[in-house]
Amino acid sequence: MAVLIDAMRAFSALNVLLLLGLGYVWGRNFLQFRSKHTLGLLVFAVLLFAENALAIYFFVFHDTLTLWVTNPQLVPLIAQQAMLALRVFEFGGIAFLTWVTWD
């Protein structure tokens, strides 16, 4: 159980790091070009960053929620695995966007 929560924490942190890089590039591009497309990418990065930062807060600093999510009587293992799968898929998408952006 703890391994799943640790993996969720790790993938959320990796997502935050990648989104910081994407936000930097897209923000710099928006300041230079002032296009709606780059603004859209920047807003996307900011919102996804906020979602992942909130997940880190919940899974690292919020003891009550962490205890609730790690309790197999309250949250079945399949639900924990699904939450981890969503984090992994999100990381895959952000990693691909990062590769395309920095290439």
Describe the structure.
By secondary structure, this protein is mainly alpha-helical. The chain is 89% helix and 0% strand. It has helices at residues 2-33, 36-61, 63-70, 77-102. Helix 1 packs parallel to helix 4. The relative contact order is 0.18.
Layout: helices, strands, pairs:
Blueprint: H1 2-33, H2 36-61, H3 63-70, H4 77-102
Q: Assign the structural class, choosing from mainly alpha, mainly beta, alpha/beta, alpha+beta, or little secondary structure.
A: mainly alpha
Major sheet, described briefly? none
Name the helix and strand elements from N-terminus to C-terminus, one letter apiece: HHHH
Question: How much is the radius of gyration in Å?
Answer: 16 Å
- Counted beta strands: 0
β-strand percent reads under 5%
* Uncertain regions spanning at least 5 consecutive residues: none
**Average pLDDT figure:** 94
Overall spatial form: elongated
Measure the end-to-end span.
Answer: 38 Å
Number of helices: 4
Percent of residues in helical segments?
Answer: over 70%
